[in-house]
């Protein structure tokens, strides 16, 4: 939780760069990243971006629904949609799809760095939804939807797949933090092993990430991003 706050506060006063198909600072996400500095916030508006995005600076890459849905980063059936090479980045608000089919790590997001936050994204029809390279640790992944990927995620350990979140406002000061994990389209029904006997919106049993040892302790029974 402390890492989350540090990263969010650190980006609060950074330069803001806009990306949109037209009328913004850049029309390409990669162009914006190539001209960004550590700490910048890159806001990507609704649109379909056929790109292989490489994040080489510690930035916040934020997708915004500006009227026609969350921005889509489409790898066009090759390689990976977004590759994280820099530590301390934040990725949220995207629909990431169309990775290549290679089992070498083609994914919606490939993580080859540490201390990143990946939240509130849709990973749709990729070889891997998220693939975390060995040695990449202390990454926090929560509030994402893994939909119809061949393999939802791969993680050799040392990362968090759920987070305890406080409600906003004064009432949040008096309430316990609520845990939340991710939603997996192949693990959200009783026939797939996801039972919700107390109807709290979470599967009773944790979800193993790939072959482990990473686990999501609070997998969701329904999509988080609609």
Q: What is the approximate shape?
A: globular
Estimate the helix proportion, in percent. under 10%
Largest sheet: 6 strands, parallel
Number of helices: 2
How confident is the prediction overall: mean pLDDT? 92
* Topology as a string of helices (H) and strands (E): HEHEEEEEEEEEEEEEEEEEEEE
Distance between the termini: 25 Å
Flag low-confidence runs.
none
Radius of gyration: 17 Å
E-strand count: 21
Strand content: 25-35%
Strand order in the sheet with the most strands: 1-2-5-8-11-14
Q: What structural category arises from helix and sheet content?
A: mainly beta
Key traits:
single chain; 226 residues; mainly beta; 6-stranded parallel beta sheet; 21 strands
Give an overview of the whole structure:
With 226 residues, the protein is mainly β. It contains two helices and 21 strands. The protein has helices at 2-12, 29-34; strands at 16-19, 41-44, 48-50, 53-55, 60-63, 72-74, 82-84, 90-92, 95-97, 107-111, 117-119, 122-124, 128-132, 140-142, 145-147, 151-154, 163-165, 178-180, 183-184, 207-208, 215-216. The strands form five sheets. It has a six-stranded parallel sheet. Strands 3-6-9-12-15-19 form a six-stranded parallel sheet, with no helix packed on it. The chain has a five-stranded parallel sheet with strand order 4-7-10-13-16. A hairpin with a 6-residue loop joins strand 20 (207-208) and strand 21. The longest helix has 11 residues, at 2-12. It is globular, with a radius of gyration of 17 Å. The mean pLDDT is 92.
């Amino acid at each position: 939780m402390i890492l989350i706050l540090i990263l969010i506060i650190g980006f609060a006063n950074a330069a803001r760069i806009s990306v949109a198909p037209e009328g913004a600072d850049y029309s390409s996400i990669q162009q914006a990243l190539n001209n960004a500095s550590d700490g910048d916030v890159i806001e990507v508006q609704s649109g379909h971006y056929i790109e292989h995005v490489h994040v080489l600076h510690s930035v916040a890459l934020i997708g915004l629904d500006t009227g026609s849905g969350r921005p889509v980063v489409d790898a066009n059936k090759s390689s990976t949609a977004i590759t994280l090479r820099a530590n301390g980045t934040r990725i949220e608000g995207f629909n990431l799809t169309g990775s290549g089919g290679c089992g070498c790590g083609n994914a919606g997001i490939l993580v080859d760095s540490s201390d990143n936050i990946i939240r509130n994204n849709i990973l749709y029809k990729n070889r891997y939804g998220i693939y975390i390279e060995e040695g990449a640790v202390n990454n926090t992944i929560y509030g994402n939807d893994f939909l119809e990927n061949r393999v939802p995620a791969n993680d050799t350990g040392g990362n968090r797949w759920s987070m305890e979140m406080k409600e906003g406002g004064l009432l949040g000061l008096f309430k316990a933090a609520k845990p939340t994990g991710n939603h997996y389209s192949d693990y959200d029904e009783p026939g797939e092993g996801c039972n919700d006997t107390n109807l709290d919106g979470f599967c009773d049993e944790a979800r193993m990430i790939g072959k482990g040892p990473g686990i999501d302790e609070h997998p969701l029974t329904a999509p988080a991003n609609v």
